[in-house]
Amino acid sequence: MNFNFYAPTRVLFGNGQLNNLNIQAMPGKRALIVISNGKSTKENGYLERLQEQLSLANVDYDLFDEIEPNPLKSTVMNGAEAARANGCDFIVALGGGSVMDAAKAIAAMATNNGDLWDYISGGTGKAKQLENTPLPIIAITTTAGTGSEVDQWGVISNDKTNEKIGFGGYDSLFPVLAVVDPELMATVPPKFTAYQGFDALFHSTEVYISKFANLMSDMTALTAIEAVSNNLVAAVKDGGDMAAREKVAFGNTISGYSMVVGACTSEHSLEHALSAYHHDLPHGAGLIMISKAYYSFLIHKHICDDRFIKMAQVMGIKDANKPTDFITALVNLQKDCGVDDLKMSDYGITPDEFEKIAKNAMETMGGLFESDPYPLTIDDCVEILQASYK
Prior knowledge:
Elements: E1 10-13, E2 30-36, H1 40-43, H2 46-56, E3 60-67, H3 73-85, E4 90-95, H4 97-109, E5 137-141, E6 153-158, E7 163-168, E8 177-180, H5 190-209, H6 215-229, H7 232-237, H8 242-261, H9 266-277, H10 283-299, H11 305-314, H12 324-336, H13 354-364, H14 366-369, H15 378-388
Parallel strand pairs: 1-8, 2-3, 2-4, 4-5, 5-8
Antiparallel strand pairs: 6-7
Helix pairs in contact: 3-4, 5-6, 5-8, 5-10, 6-8, 9-10, 9-13, 10-12, 10-15, 11-12, 13-15
């Protein structure tokens, strides 16, 4: 029953909330706006709207628009240098999970010496502790996928070492303010709406079956699972369905809280290893690919049957009475979202990589394996990947 719940981020939630940014207390006078290296933030007018809000708040700003879908260590270091060179005293992240994750690392490295990997625990990281407080962060999410707007973690890739590892855990890396405005998500294409939605879903399904589950994580995880699973299909089929968008966005943010008070499992470690070697693989797509085999493996061990049954019930199978009903609910949701036939082979992944990927997952993100309700071996991971392969 024990839990430690600290979530200090002020959250502005709901349609149109970006318009209220200018009346919030700003944590500084000059912001580094961090966005992706894509076009959508600019073409959809979100960047211009943010700039207007900052101007109304009498805040100067500079722009860093280089963040990749799987953000790289080298890009983070460039962003930190940009913050220092321009005298920025806080960071504003405008984008999806990758942008928010990178912004946290930029905020840390803008005030600390050395290389980001000096402060990474796992793999080739040196596991040093930050000496100086990171710059404050405002997170404005344009997707419903990672919950990064309310947690103190980010995931960064090192393309030199093929490592993709979580960075953070410091109280000072919680955003001071988050804006969750579903209007900014209306333009996300259907398949990416699905990828992001399943990422949010799996954060909470993992937390719920984790051996570190507790009363608070159960509450947040089940709320998120229900909100996402019952509204994702509508959001995928009609991006302009703002009622569905709002509920999926709510589920995503609550899923972020579930990770603050609970812990994900090795499903995320395995996917991070997949995309560490194959950077074009969207994180959510990779999770979808391995999810049926991953959860089926655990179900066959009968280590938390009641929890799989409960998840099936909140996902819409009201009379669920066996753990495999969760797999039925999961597969049906993937089919209804049009993502049930994703293929590893389409991203250049081959079965001869599976042992390397499994070892990478354990070496770089081994902490999540500690959350597993059943201890997985390298052979178990390879078996899951093999069963997932198409």
